[in-house]
Write a structure and sequence with these properties.
Strand content: over 45%
Number of strands: 11
Number of helices: 0
Helix content: under 10%
Distance between the termini: 37 Å
Order of helices and strands: EEEEEEEEEEE
Radius of gyration: 13 Å
């Protein structure tokens, strides 16, 4: 069974940076799509970024493009999200997710989820 465990969230001032990590286990890491989503109170879960673990293709939501960087460390089975120039509107619970087929920006298409990590920009 796939397990995804996020870490790295916290409280940061506007303009600051955070790096989220997602450790994956029980998972054939090099054949699938991994991504980050976020959900603010009262709002629907939304895509932040995703990538194909075997390949160079990445996707970023318009709201974070140019500020966030998604990357993976295959040897460590870990997914990262470097978040720079953070804004108050980035405040959300951030979730790591895995999908067994093509990457998708629709959170309902994803198969496995972490428990989430809170990011607060204030």
């Amino acid at each position: 069974q796939v397990q995804l465990v996020e870490s790295g969230g916290g409280l940061v001032q506007p303009g600051g940076s955070l790096r989220l990590s997602c450790a994956a286990s029980g998972y054939n890491y090099d054949r699938n799509c991994l991504g980050w989503f976020r959900q603010a109170p009262g709002k629907e879960r939304e895509v932040v970024a995703h990538l194909y673990v075997r390949g160079d293709e990445t996707f970023y939501a318009v709201a974070v493009k140019g500020r966030f960087i998604i990357s993976s460390d295959d040897a460590a089975n870990t997914l990262y999200l470097q978040m720079n120039s953070l804004k108050p509107e980035d405040t959300s619970v951030y979730y790591c997710a895995a999908r067994w087929s093509r990457c998708s920006s629709n959170w309902r298409d994803w198969d496995d989820w972490g428990q989430g990590t809170q990011v607060t920009v204030s």
